[in-house]
Amino acid sequence: MSGQSRHDPVEIAQSLIRCPSVTPAEGGALDYLEDMLSTAGFRCTRLPFSAPGTPDVDNLYARFGDQAPNLCFAGHTDVVPPGPEDAWSVAPFAGEIVDGTLYGRGAVDMKGAIACFAAAALDRVATLEPGQGSVSLLITGDEEGPSVNGTVKMLDWLARNGETLDHCIVGEPTNPESLGDAIKIGRRGTLTGTLAVRGVQGHVAYPHLAHNPIPPLIDILARLTKEPLDRGTDAFQPSNLEITTVDVGNPATNVIPSSARAAFNIRFNTEHSADSLKDWIRSQCEGVAHDRGCSYDLAFLPSGDCFVTEPGQWTDIVRASVRAATGKQPALATNGGTSDARFIKDHCPVVEFGLVGQTMHQADERVPVEDLVALTRVYAHILDAYFDAKHDRAGA
Question: How high is the pLDDT of residue 392?
Fold first, then answer.
C-alpha cells in the first residue's frame, strides 16, 4: 500500500490550484474534493459558518468508516492573494508544471499536501477492512483568514455530533530545506495586543496646555521589551515580544497629538500562558500610567496557547513513516508560526508534516513533482502503520 499511489497527487494538486480560493472564497476547491471523496465512499458534510464582522466561510468534513480509531488529515484550501501576476513566471492559478516543478498559489501552503493525503487516503480506504477504523479529512477555508469560521467551529460541530478524532496530522509545510527534515510536534503560542495612550492635543509651544501621549507610550514599550521573557525550554525556543507598529497619525510638526498607538505580538512557550502575559502587560501599562498620570486603552486579539504533543507511539509512527519514505530521520520541532493544530490539540494528539516551506506566500510558489510523490508515500506509510501495525494505541 505504501508504494506508488493509484490516485495521482500531482493531478489533484493541479486541480486544486486551479480553484482561485483566496480567503474567504471557496473557489471550487471544496466542491472538487467533495465530489472526488464522495465518489470513493466518504461521507461528506459541508460546514458553512458565519459570525458578525467576519466573512462567511465554507468547510468540509469527510469520513470513511464509522468505527474507532479515526485518523484525521487536516488542512486548508484557502490561500493568500497571489499579488501582482507579472511577478510570477506562470499564472498563479494555472497549475502549470515547468521542468518537473508545479507552480501556483497554494502549491506548498497547502493544496499540495491536501492532494497528497487525499491520494493516500483514497488508496488506503479501498482496502480498509470493516472494524479496522476510519479515515477522515478536516478541510477548512479559513486558515489564512481570521480563523474564526473554520477549524474551531468545525471541531465544535464534530463534538456535538459524536464525531471523535483519535489522532490527527496537519499538512502544513514543516520542512525548512528538504522533505524529511522536520515534524512539528508543537507550536509556540501567539498573543497580539493593541495599545493606545490618550493625551490632550495642543500647540508644541505651549506644552503645559497639552498632554503628549508619545513619551508614556515609549515608556510602556520600553518596559515590555527591556528584558527577555524567558530563556527557552527543552522543547521550545525563547519567547519573544515584537513591536509591529507605532502610529501617531500626526501630519503637523507643531502639534502635540491627542493619541499614540502601537501594536505588538508575542510568541510564547510553555513558561507562559496568554492570560499570564495579559496580566503582565497590564501591570506594565498601569505602572507607567501611574507615574505619568496618563490613561490608555489596551485590547487583545484572540490568542492561541502554546502546545506540545509528547513523543510516544503516535510520533514514532509518523517519524518512522517519514524515514521509510524519504530515508531521512526527521527532527521533532516546535519552531515557526501558528497553525490550526493549536485548535486540534484540544481534541486529540496532533502533529504536522508537509512540504518544504521556502516559497510559501511568495510569487512563484512551487513544489517539485517528486516531492508530491514522496509526501504521498509518507502519508501512505502512516496509514499502513496506523491501521496494520500491531501496537497498543492506548496512550499513543
Answer: 44
